[in-house]
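Please describe the entry underneath.
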Amino acid sequence: MSDSAISLSSLSISGRDVSTDWLKDVKPLDLDLLFNPRTVALIGASKDIKKSGGDFLKRMLERGYKGTIYPINLRETEILGVKTYPNVQSVPGQIDLAIFCIPVALVIKTMEECIAKGIKYVVVHTSGFNEVGNPVLEAELVHLARTGGVRFVGPNCMGVFSNEARLSCMDAVPESNVENEDVAFIGQSGTLCDSYISHGQERGLKINKAVSLGNEADLKFTDYLAYFAADPRIKIISAYIEGVREGKKFLDLVQKINRRKPVLVWKAGRTSAGTRATLSHTGSIAGSHQINEAAFRQAGIITANSLESLVDLTAGLYAPVLPKGPKVGILVDTGGGAVAAADACESAGLEVARLSTKVQEELRKGFQGKLPPFAGITNPVDLVSPKDEDRINLYDFSLELMAPEVDYFMILSFHELSDPNFMALLKKARDRLKKPIFMVPPIPIRKIEQIKNYTRRGIPSFYNVDRAALTIHRLIDYARWLESR
């Protein structure tokens, strides 16, 4: 495994086949020009940055979109220093993607103009369709696009995010100087797309692409799922959904994908109030939460119950191997952290097994003269604030002795995480012992950059022990699902 990315094969605990033969059953659409357009027509561009047409243009310029932007506005000759055009027909050359920031009454006419221009992909940011009880207009838009050879995102959506193209229809900002972006996100909420990308980047996730689905009148969740599955750069697919359309197709598809790439889903609408809100948001029917949850688990989907949980689970998959069982080895250098970690792990259904007498005796001998006699040796193993010159050797010694009796490690260390020697120790131990290591630093608000760096290097890091333990439990479930296949 490289420092900057997890490989597809490294996610396997049982040598899964990573060939591409399975893609013939997935039948992905080619959406490359939707996510990496060379030219974009922003229809409804505005000088007023409080309007979506002005805000979108400002974002694209500030974030360094790599292609050419054609703002479309009937009255202006330039906006924010960019030449404008009265309509798409007046734009010279091919347009790969059009983004609609226009009133709903203009959508049909504008789609006809895009068809005449030969535009193949459209983002319909405009709302006012099925989500507000206007299914006839939505059906007319779909029929027009299909007969004209156009595929579109939405309506009633934020659109797409592509780190590679530095294109963002959202508030989320593409990162520069990031290699091997390996996460894709699909969301039925523009706000949650924004939130996932921003929170994920802060945690060390490398977001490659994302899409806000809106009403899914044309392109559906399963279309994006199949496309991301076929993209060799994507290793993990995360999603927020409110209602499951094409239920059987979705479950059949995700079972094929989940054997090669993990799919994580936060399914909202668990309560009656949430179900009502879902219907008014995107026009989706949420369905029974219990039935959905059972079907998801049977398909091997890793399920989340909040934004934080979804980000945690994605971060957890940056470990190069999955935990093979529930036995946790807890290694700390502060006693209070040991108690908190043990409680969190056992409460989450993990096993804090007592180390054998033989291992305890070997730990005791190794600690002699370096740690006080009350240092913990049972699991959690407590190094009790060792001297700086002893710390790395004591961690290495302890990990080596504990490894045969645990399935993975949880570490709580007050050691300065920016120390490259400490990180190097943990990476070497992880790879040598073939056991994932999860990190929970103290006072995480002061360790944001270290948390990000550790996660990106295959040592998933968390803001507290409870979130770490719940994440590990779900990863174990996924590992078991893989082994049963």
Q: What stands out?
A: Residues 1-18, 278-286 have pLDDT under 50 and may be disordered.
